[in-house]
Structure formats: structure tokens, C-alpha cells
Amino acid sequence: MASHAANLWVLLGLGLAGIVLLTKRLKKTIKADFGAFIQKLELLPPPQPAPPKAPHPLTSLNFAVSEVFDIEGYVTGFGHPDWVRTHEASSQTSPVVLALVEGGATCVGKTVVDELAYSIHGENKHYGTPTNPTAPACIPGGSSSGAAVAVAANFVDFSLGIDTLGGVRVPAAFCGVIGFRPSYGVVSHTGIIPVSSSLDTVGLFAKDPNILHRVGLVLLQLPFSVQRNPRQILLADNCFQLLKIPMDRVLQVVINSTGKHFGRQVLKHENLDKYFSSKVPSLKEFYGQKINGDSKISSMRLLANVAQILQRYEFKCTHEEWINSKRPVLDSSISAQINETLDMTDKEIEICKSIRTEMRLAVNSLLKDDGILVIPTTAYPPLKLGSKEIFSEDYENCMFSLLSIASISGCCQVTLPLGYHDKCPVSVSFIARHGGDRFLLDTVQTMYSSLQEHADTVAKSKLSHNAVNQEHAAEVAKEKGNQAYKDKQWQKAIGFYTEAIKLSGNNATYYSNRAAAYLELGSFLQAEADCTKAINLDKKNVKAYLRRGTAREMLGYYKEAIEGGEVVSHTSIEL
Hints:
Layout: H1 2-15, E1 21-23, E2 28-30, E3 37-43, E4 62-66, H2 81-85, H3 95-102, E5 106-111, H4 145-152, E6 158-163, H5 169-175, E7 178-181, E8 201-206, H6 209-220, E9 232-236, H7 237-240, H8 248-262, E10 267-270, H9 272-279, H10 282-286, H11 299-326, H12 332-339, H13 346-367, E11 371-375, H14 393-409, E12 412-421, E13 424-432, H15 437-460, H16 465-486, H17 490-503, H18 508-521, H19 524-537, H20 542-555, H21 558-563
């Protein structure tokens, strides 16, 4: 195995011409390993079990770990040479790393993290900023920058990072790979340097969704279970409005892929600002002094602020003594945050705990066991190296508003690449309830290929911006119709569904939903016609068959109902 690993690095070196490349355009040296690695090493898996026992589940895979994971005999560097200088070599290997090695994978190195794993930018002045393989002129994202780059550049099959406020999700998005933040607390933190104990989660990078699934099952020690399909996929409309690229570049891909696998009837729309405002009352309690009169701070913005304050407070509680005694040279932006006076009263700490509890309950209640929440991973595409915009208030507010949802609630999230826009990687994120990790990984495995196909199609599409906007407006009208239907305002619901049909006339769900409202009014001929149209558009629309059966029975068309194989029911069918 030792010679195999050595040959691997030789081949990789040859594949990159085995030299240091110098690009005049970038005015920076690109290392043969893209600056991803701090240290090369080799942890070999145990021998394969004798037949008839199955081989190790991660056989033939290799991986790297961020410089926050302990490996016996090596100093865990935490992204800073002064940390290395003032700490001893680890006496034990992190249980997470051991579990993967014992599962058959080979660990081949440690990768660069941001200074003290604190930032989400991916820059490190001490060891150099890893080169983003998908956009070399742009930042790779952090804190687990090297781990993302190692996967994006095909040096390893997967890698481990730490995600506090986006430490895995941001570099995954910026480097165009899959990034998985598991539910808080389901993966051991033993043998890992903490950043913020209530927010930290071990994260995973991969390019192949099947590898992500294989490693995820080992990492989470999940038992076998029957795969379940989502019954609702919620699009967070207000979150997509934060995007700095056309939001339909992402939304249309998700809508099209969902329709292909599960039917568009599972798509719903949600405004998370309004939802969290009503379900997480402790947010306003924490920031009561900042809300005066008509001046309102959005719940998403409050959530972002709480997450940043929590990270800063817990980081200082853990590492302030070392910083004060060793006086390390810190990046000015990190130093400013760490050294800022931050006194939290016991009451404020308790309110933060209440916010975490309320957030988890809120997201779990929204998604239940079979829901997926869809949001942009990041509001911004990867910015240029050295850009001052990463320090702007808008950048931080938009980025952390999205990233704090999973960080505070502790729910699981996967970042998925969706091709490119203006030569920069595009991504989307799926979130499932806390503990819904297997459901989330299964959903990703099901949808990944079609997401990539539709991303390519949408990127090449000649559709005008107006045409895409019409489809989004149709979805909004449908949601208004659904709400009117729930409120038993049948005629109003029909008006909204009709508006949706005028905007997008080839959507079976719109016709099927309008038929449901017609049934409530006793307009059976119109209901039967709408259901037939829905079935012609989508042969898998079960609700349309059921509703047509009801309409035909009420019209006395028993023979047609039976010949159509429709289940006749006198009861209304839920939207």
C-alpha cells in the first residue's frame, strides 16, 4: 500500500506536468498540489476480512483531513504556525478518522484551513491560500479550504472538514463539489480542535454522490433502512432573493429535476423570514433593544447575528487564554473580531440556547420526516482573490443569513454543484430535519444526475428572462390558490389557479388543483375536463385520476370511471 500511495502522488504530479506553473494573468504561483496540503502521510486500512465476509465498505477510497483533526504522532496545526510551535504531537487519532480507515479508506494527508479555522474565505497568509481549481482567480472559501480543493482537483476521493458557520458548505459551493454538514451531534467531536462547541459539525466533501453516500453511512454509522422519497420540497423564496446571480438559474434546475422524479405537486413555496419570525420568538427577545418603532430587523438577519456572536463568544471562551499568553500574529480581520469586547450575561446565554431549541423545533415542524428545504448555499459567487467585498456588511449579512439556518437549528444540509454562471461555480443546498441525514443522502443520490442534466440545459437555454419569470409567477399564483383552498375560498382558489395556467399552461398540477376547487363547488364538468388535461400532461398525476373518478361518478359516468381505472371517492382529496 505504501508504494501504491507513493505512485499515486507521482502520477498526480505527472498529471500536473510535475512542475510549478506560473500564470501571468493570476500573478501567483500554482503549486502542484494546488496548495491544498499541509502534510502528506499515510494511514492504511486493516486487511480485508476473509470470505464469505463482505469487504470493507470504503475499500479503494483515499481521503484527506483538515488540519483540525488529531492524528497520532502529528501536531494538529489549526491553520497557524504559532499553534504548531506551542503544542505537542497528538497521542491519539480522532475516532472519526479511525472509523473511516477501519472502514477501508486510506488517509493520505492533512489539508490547509483558514487561520484558527475561523473564517469562511479560505485565505491563509501563513501557509498560502489554496488555489480554487474551478476558478483560480477566486477565493476557494473556508474554513476547510484545502479539503475542498483536494477533492475538486481529484487528489482524493473525499475529505473531512469542520463546519461552524459554513466551513464545509462555502468551500464546497465555491469549488464546485458536494459538501455535507450532518445533523449537529451525530458525529463525534473527540480529537478535533473546537471553534464553537455549539455550532461545530464534522463535514464531508466528495465529487461523486455515490461516494458521499457510502462514506456518509460509515461516518454516521447509519443502519439499513428503506429509502423514502420526499413528499414536499419547499423553495425558500425570500432566500433566493438574496442571490447575486439570476435566481432562476438555480430555481428552474430544482423545479425541473423535482418534476422528473417526484412530480411538481410536491413543490411548495415558503417565506422563511415570516416563518421564523412567528416560530422563533426568542430571536426578537435577544435583539429587543435593536427594534425601535417601525424599524424592523428581519428574522434571518437576526439569526445571522446570533450565529456570529455565538461563534465569537464560544471561540473566546475556549482559546482566549492561549491567544493572550502566546500572542500569535493574527490576520487583522480575525483579530478585530476576536479582540472585540463581548460580554454576554447569563440571561443572554440562556436566550441563545432558547433560540437554538426553537429553531430546531421550527425546522423539524416545517419539514417533518419527509420534507426538503431548498435554499441557495451562498448569496455570492466566489469573489476575486484579495477582494475587499468579503468584509462588506452586505456580504456578511447575506452569506450568514443563509448559513446560519443549519448552524443554529443543527439540521443537516448538503451543498450541490449546478454547473457555472459567468465562469464561476453555482450551487444549491438541500436541508432536512435534525436526524434526517439518511433521508437527505438518499434524496441527493436520487436527484443528483438529473440536477446536473437540468443545470446544463438551463445554462444553455435560449429562454428569455421574461419566460422564466412567468413560470416563477405561475408558481406564486399556485401557492396563493393553495392557501385560498385551505381557507375554503373555492372561487378565489379557482381564480389563482386560472392565473397560474395562463402564465404556464403545461403544468398538470395547476389543472389538477383547479379541478379540486371545482369539485367543492359542484362544477363536475369543469373538474372532469381539468383532470383529463392534467392526465394528458402527466400520466403519473395520481390525484388527477382520483379527482376525475369523483367527477365522473357525480356526473353518472360510471363506465368511464371504471374503464379509466379510477378509484371513485365521495371525499375531497388534499392538495
